[in-house]
Amino acid sequence: MPDPQIRFDDGAAYEEFMGKWSRLAGATFLDWLAPPAGWRWADIGCGNGAFTEMIVQRHAPASVSGIDPSPEQLEFARHRLAGSPLLEHLQPGGGEIVFHGGMKVGLEFCNRPRGLKPVPAPGTA
After folding, report:
1. What's this model's pTM, rounded to 2 decimal places?
2. Per residue in 69-94, pLDDT tens?
3. Using CA atoms, how far apart are residues 107 and 66, in angstroms rounded to an integer?
């Protein structure tokens, strides 16, 4: 029997294979970080939205932006988080993301984010 493989192009398959670990690691991280309510979050490499969902459920964020290069993962995340008024956007990664308030961030993806480059909003540099 072949070893199961992580499928980054299928949110449901990824959830089945990695979901429990994503939630376990996410819970441990959020317990350690202990963020106050009202933060604005950017979940870079959000995958199928498991960690994004935890942020929304546990920490009363002001907003959450989920960014991932996989359209299939993002579609799963959109469905998972449907109806959440906290999401600014869930969009394919790569290129430049403009957040609410004009802050721009350049993203470069491989299998995970390799670099984040803040770029000042026009007229503020």
Report:
1. 0.71
2. 788 888 888 888 888 877 766 665 55
3. 13
* The CA-based dihedral angle spanning residues 11, 12, 18, 20, taken in that order and rounded to the nearest 10 degrees: 120
Domain-located, residue 2: no
User: Is 68 within 8 Å of 46 (Cβ atoms)?
Assistant: yes
CA–CA distance, 3 with 6 (Å, rounded to integer): 10
Domain holding 93, by residue range, is 11-119
**Partners of residue 43 on adjacent β-strands:** 66
- Count how many domains the chain has: 1
Q: Scanning the structure block, which residue is given the tokens 């979901």?
A: 19
| Residue 107, amino acid | L
Residues 46 and 66: beta-carbon distance below 8 Å: yes
For the beta sheet containing 63-68, the strands, ordered from the edge strand earlier in sequence to the opposite edge, are 40-44, 63-68, 87-92
Q: pLDDT tens-digit profile of 33-70?
A: 999 999 888 888 888 889 999 999 999 998 888 888 78
Read off the CATH number of the domain in which 28 is found: 3.40.50.150
